[in-house]
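so my prof wants the structure for this chain in the tokens format not the other one, which i didnt know existed until like an hour ago. anyway here's the sequence
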Amino acid sequence: MNDHFQSIEKIVKKSIFILYKSESCPELDFQYTKKEYPGDMTLILFPLSKRFKQPTEKIGKDIGNYVKNQLKGLIQFSIIKGFLNFIFKDDYYIHLLKKMLNTNFYDLKYPSKKIMIEYSSPNTNKPLHLGHVRNSLIGASIAEILKMIGHEIIRIQMINDRGIHICKSMIAWKIFGKGETPDRAKIKGDHFVGKYYSLFDKIYQKEIRELSKKNNRSIIQYSILNQARELLKKWEEGDPIIRNTWKKMNQWVYNGFEKTYKKLGITFDKVEYESDIYEIGKKIVKKGLEKGIFFEKEDGSIWIDLTKEGFDQKLLLRSDQTSVYITQDIGTAVKRFKESNVDQIIYIVGKEQDYHFKVLFNVLRRLGYTWVNKLSHLSYEMVFLPSGRMKSREGNVIDADSIILKMSSIAKKKLKKKEKQEQSSEIIGLGALKYYFLKIDPRKKIIFYPEKSIDFKGKTGTYVQYTYSRIRSLERNFFKLCSLLNYYWSNIKFNTYEKNMIKILQKYPLILKKSAIHLNPSLIANYVYEVSKTFNHLYQNKKLIDPLNIIHSNICMNIIHITGNVLKSGMNLLGIKMLDYM
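here's what i got, hopefully its the right format
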């Protein structure tokens, strides 16, 4: 189905119900009419002929006449070899233009749901990286899209602030930090803590190499990993000294995260902390053991057997009674439904966690929680560098702060005008980054090329921003050269470029709806690019502002104005700011 023609499609569907007394409408296949035939859009009749066992010629005439009557003669039609071609009159384009000038064009309210979206959810042991950027941009955009169509949205971030990974940076700082702080070191807090996390890994790798050479058990006993495990145990026991160190180091990281999120324009309605919730999960697991839902091994660890569901046995609580990731997620889900009474929870987490969420949902189902069907996992693919996959141990992970700075720097070099360069370069750089990440379906991999993402001619956010600034410039010129009229809606003739512009603009509501249904911001990102490209074709082939033809200049002004509004609305849903001047 071609979404440009949603008004026609609705009428065709209605005609099928009325003409053929059909309780359900089959999938309708709309296309652009081929250039060699007259028409603007085409309905393929063969599936309908097969369904209703009537000749394509008769079905075409029935539907064509029904649509023509409903639209009061604003369209004509012809039937050629099983294809129903609709021919739009100029007055029909006026009809579409008036429809888009109405504020109801953007009013896409559907039955409202209360939807919680979890995204970003970093660990407090290192700065945000490119993977977090993709996660956060997808989450923030989906939240805006769902809000646009009338849903109540709760943006939530789960901070993974406890566990062995946190204790690794803590033990490295305790041993080697000598009281150093981010302020003294003049390093952003999350980067400061990340430095000690990396130091832990270097020391641990060195210990492994020594162990393989000497086979010395004392190395295992006093290894830095063993010390981190002891630290975790003391933390779970509530040791006040360990807890104070933990709070201090986590706060350093939070301060760093806050600065990065502010640069990216990422916000949350609520922040949860794993340290506040993991005990809830432990209690639920122990109750599940009492009820016989889970089982205990000889070492005291608690498991669930999901082999009947096609999975394996899954650890829920370690032998020392410390929790694992899934323990926390069990407690989190139960707490959220108890406190927030939501209709849906969407977890935005990378593809590598697909198995984890399948297991989680099955565990909750076994526990008897009927709301488990309201949980969904939006899985997204990884971000790759041209050199390959990012890996922390190989030192080729790009942190979010570095890439934001790099994008702004690239934009600054490419901007021709020097005035307001600093502010504009930040908006263009961030816009390029966000668009590059969001134009690709979340389920597809990204190979990120920073230089290629800022291009005034390619499929980039910069191209869309530049088109928008061109539109605002045209509006300013119009009011300098022409006057606004209110009586120009009759006897207007549109050329092909104007018709194409009107057709693609009136597609916006359905693209928005599709993007919301499929939780896919790339549909909007690609749509605003097509709108920009179509507008630039119009701009290059038609004199849009002509003081000698005030009436048609007014018509063009309306097309220009609607285009600018659609571009700004769509890009705002992607979290991208627009510039009136570029």
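also thought this was worth mentioning. Residues 127 and 267 are 17 Å apart (CA to CA).
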